[in-house]
Design a protein that fits this description.
4-stranded mixed β-sheet, Glutathione S-transferase Yfyf (Class Pi), Chain A, domain 2, 208 residues
């Protein structure tokens, strides 16, 4: 049965489309637009899942929410493809980056997004949050300087998970030429045929 992806524009759900393209799994996109004033997801998504957020997938009656959970579901469904590599160190890196993307890297980026929308207070607060983000960006740069992909020598689902926060960081958190390995990694994933196919299926995406 074809997987249904409930896809919100300019959101984490772009990663799910990319993952499905890499795996060659058939899927259908149900696309949702953000509220132009609040930039929040539309209420229609609550009909799919009580949280009313994206991504959510439906697969033969099973509803799965949360990007990391969906990624792990798809790896299992694909018999381990794009999952952890054979070496123990690669497995540990895979697991860490799979959770690091949302658990550690995204929260300060979300804070920065909110602060940028607060005209007066935001500017002084940004001076405090940016150094925290820089610690993460320096860490990511050091990891990508050591190997071509986050888990090792091959692309895995960990790279797919890391794509959105690093795309967001490039757009609004100072990720640039001073971190060449991270920029090269972003350019590399954007050039992949599966990534380009996902963009074509998902519609406009501000971060690629």
């Amino acid at each position: 049965m074809t997987i249904i992806v409930h896809h919100l524009e300019n959101s984490r759900s772009q990663r799910i489309l990319w993952m499905l393209e890499e795996l060659g799994m058939p899927y259908e996109v149900k696309r949702y637009e953000r509220n132009k004033q609040t930039m929040l997801a539309p209420p229609e998504l609550k009909r799919v899942h009580p949280l009313g957020k994206s991504p959510v997938i439906e697969d033969d009656g099973v509803v799965v929410a949360e990007t990391g959970a969906i990624i792990e579901y798809l790896v299992e469904k694909a018999d381990g493809r794009l999952g952890p590599l054979a070496h123990r160190e690669s497995v540990l890196r895979y697991r860490m980056f799979l959770h690091y993307a949302e658990g550690s890297l995204m929260p300060p980026l979300l804070v920065l997004l909110v602060l940028n929308r607060i005209p007066i207070f935001g500017k002084s607060a940004i001076k405090r949050i940016q150094p925290m983000i820089d610690v993460h960006l320096d860490y990511v740069e050091s990891e990508l300087a050591a190997r071509p992909w986050f888990a090792g020598d091959e692309m895995t689902a960990a790279d797919i998970m890391m794509s959105f926060p690093l795309e967001a960081a490039r757009g609004r958190a100072g990720l640039g030429a001073s971190r060449p390995h991270t920029i090269a990694w972003l350019d590399k994933i954007h050039a992949r045929p599966a990534y380009q196919a996902a963009l074509a299926r998902g519609g406009p995406y501000a971060y690629a």
